[in-house]
Design a protein that fits this description.
The structure holds two protein chains of two kinds.
Chain A lengths: L7 E9 L4 H14 L4 E6 L8 E9 L10 E6 L5 H6 L1 E10 L14 E5 L1 H8 L3 H19 L4 H12 L3 H21 L17 E4 L1 H12 L3 E4 L6 H14 L11 E4 L3 H13 L4 E5 L1 H17 L3 E7 L16 H6 L8 E3 L4 H18 L2 E7 H5 L2 E4 L17 H6 L29 E3 L13 H21 L4 E3 L6 E6 L3 H13 L5 E5 L1 E2 L3 H8 L3 E6 L5 H9 L7 E5 L8 H17 L1
Parallel strand pairs in A: 1-4, 4-5, 5-6, 8-9, 8-10, 10-11, 11-13, 12-13, 17-18, 17-20, 20-21
Antiparallel strand pairs in A: 1-3, 2-3, 7-14, 12-19, 16-18
Chain B lengths: L37 H15 L7 E5 L3 H4 L9 E4 L5 H11 L4 E7 H5 L3 H9 L4 E7 L2 E2 L5 E2 L22 H8 L3 E6 L3 H13 L3 E7 L15 H7 E10 L14 E5 L5 E6 L9 H13 L3 E8 L6 H5 L11 H4 L2 H9 L4
Parallel strand pairs in B: 1-2, 1-3, 3-4, 4-8, 7-8, 9-12
Antiparallel strand pairs in B: 5-6, 7-12, 9-11, 10-11
Helix pairs in contact in B: 1-7, 3-5, 6-9
The chains are: A alpha/beta, B alpha/beta.
Amino acid sequence: MTKVSHNNFTVKFANVNGTGSSSANGMFMKSIFRMGIPVVGKNYFPSNIQGLPTWYEVRVSDKGYLAPSGSVDIMVAMNAQTYDEDLASVEPGGYLIYDSSWPREDLMIRDDITVLGVPLANMCNEKFDSARARTLMKNTSYVGVLAALLEMDTTVIEQLLLDTFGDKKHLIDANKTALDMGFNYAKENFKCPLPFKAKPINKTDGYIMIDGNATAALGCLFAGATVGSWYPITPSTSLMDAFSSYCSFYRKDKKTGKNNYSIIQAEDELAAVGMALGAGWNGARSFTPTSGPGISLMSEFIGFGYYTEIPTVIFNVQRTGPSTGMPTRTQQGDISLCAYASHGDTRHVCLYPANPEEAFYLSVAAFDLAEKLQTPVFVLSDLDIGMNDWMIKDLKWDDKFKPDRGKVLSSEELEEMENYYRYLDVDGDGVPYRTIPGTNPKGSYFTRGSGHNRFGGYTEDASEYQDVVDRLLVKWETAKTLVPKPAVSFSKNNDIGIISIGSCDDAIREARDIMKKQGQKMNYLRVKAFPFTKEVQKFLDAHKTIFVIEQNRDGQLAKLLISETAVETKKIKSIRLYNGIPIFPKDVVEKIQTELKAGKAA
Amino acid sequence: MSYIKKPKIIRDSDPRNKLGMTFDDYEGVMSTLCAGCGHDSITGAIIQTVFDLNIEPHKMIKLSGIGCSSKTPAYFASQSHGFNSVHGRMPSVATGANAANSELLCIGVSGDGDTLSIGMGQFSHAVRRNLNMLYIIENNGVYGLTKGQFSASADVGSTAKKGAANLQTPIDPCSIAINLGATFVARSFSGDKEQLIPLLKAGLMHRGFAMIDVISPCVTFNDHEGSTKSYLSTRETKREAVYTDYIAPFSEIEVQYEEGSSLEVDLHEGGKVLLRKTDDSFSPLDRSQSINGIKEASDKGEVLTGLLYIDESQPDFTEVENTINGALNSVSYDDLCPGSKALNELLDNYK
């Protein structure tokens, strides 16, 4: 795979959670970013407040690959509990930094790596008085060690301290002291720099580092969402935290100081989605962020929203299932669930962002789609997209954008009508006209999840019932023309294709580059939405073999393609990586090669 | 069609309210409940209430859950938007609707099954938020649509139609609501419109969560001897704790009560609630007296009715949340979207 070189390596930090390591690790990553070198961070953290192992992995990649490499070149081993496995995970020729305040005998187990001991605790105990500072500053000190080993631009790190701590001078001073301490120790005791280092280049201009929950929240803000209801659940919580913080700044009524929005922390997810639907019905752009268990709870209401045709947006920041599963690990395990959530015949529009950049644009698109189609729309992100910091292009906003509220009748339009009926398919596209309460008494109708006819009346009549559910299928066909088209990379010379989804994208991009070097070229389509558009069928038709790569055990995307397109089942080769860790390019390559070999042998 | 529109016959002589609307204008489709169902009397009382209060129908929304009770929003105010949600989940829909537009009056109709079992959580949290709505529980102690199982409000010893007695302790919505911090709690009887209509008016005009528990006998499954929620039993056991009148804004108080026995509570919309006590030890302005009063009556086998608790001083959900008054969709998009310049400035924080 990729050989270690300047600007091309992975540093992994092994810490104990609750010790303040994440800010130091973030500082290290951001400094690399500010040196103009593409970088990405992956946080492997426990579902716990304090005391359990946590890892942070920073991949530095001058080519801008954003998937985790799957190998560790420098390990900062700060957790005795996981020391053995951390030691074992370092690539031959790599480095391990540890706190030598407490020397350990088993240091010598590997002679194919370089072990660097730094007395971090001793140094910090001498310099700092409080227990908290002693703990925190150990983290900053190892950043100093790395800065020396990798010959990082220390002015960049110092500027970052100023930007981070603002007017809190004591924090700036303490961090600067700790940084220098680590830096000087490394300079005096080790050969600096290492054979590979971080060399300033110019590849991060026009980029930001941000997580996908923040960008999804920005999408809600810019789309004009006004009501957000939610129940705290990892890994979606920070989406509403971000929305709340943006709103408190951008959404105050200038005259009264009152909120032009309402954020409701519900009693549970059953209520959260009920609130979102109530708000959507009553004219607000509404949304609710959650994760898999929340979708399970919301399912009854989701079917209600589908059948009564109420717009709202549901963010599912997926985590590892089933059941409680691993709340702090990533997966794409809710593809089937969201496509068909709820009892009876239901189908839902789903959007699948691949990274925080798309989480922004698809979140904006979701609100328009929900209102144009008058139905709940899902945005399926995942923990990797939602909670990890990614390097993405600067988000752009077109000030000419106006939200498309869909077919909503105004008071004047209602006045001109003889009669208004909620579920009449006037235009033949399966999307009826809706009215918003408070507009005009002529627009009143009764919303009900029980059988209703095209006029909005209660019915138990066979043909009246069927008339409405069949019309919903017409709407589904309309949805196919409105949802985002897939991202396609196609050459007619290739007869093998890859279809994938969401956060698999970067690993696949890199895997394709690796395979290309080995002489194996493959086309690639990434679905961005359900229902599948005609481009998906075209891609399926154009290939003899299609690898469907996804992060769940059961091949949910592969099954969805088989049931929702006209693809020949035998063409589909399902590749599934689902251990809760973002997928590695090398694993994708290996799985494909195994399949190809098996195919030839057969 | 399986629903029946009521024939609308309006005569010149029909009384009209200040909006020029007749009583018929506030009706809904024909009820499909059993003949004699208490719920239909409540529907009639609601129609009278909104007619008298001159409510613009499109400025009101009516919501419900699932069950016999939850059918009733279809039977009144056909010019108002209605929402028949899922079982026990009407409060969350009302909360979202209120967040979207706090200006609309909101009537929620639920039942003892819909509120006190599956809906207990959402009911409690709507109370806790002091959501500005009138929440009516049409309470008959049984599940009607599934043919007569006891609900959580059935009294110990009350018998089912086939004779089996309920053994589990009832949940009293009024005590629970007062304990949870409700700001308007009343109990009434579907067979007593004179009491019910002023309570509905006061409840609808109250700012915050107004709950009225209305004993509403189920003629098919719970109106027999041995039932404590039959017409006969309710008539015999109900005791009015306090007489309530609603006085509209700018109206004169016409009745005179004895000094010391009456109380006035000013409502935010300008009207008043006029209360006349029947018992010196009970005041609906005192939470503990109210809870004790309900308990003592219940111990004696009585059903305490009337306005049991009122507190007009508490901020409602909209005020606590500091949300603008009115419809959020009336805010122009330009005021909602920060725009490209703000976005670019914001991105600097992520560099």
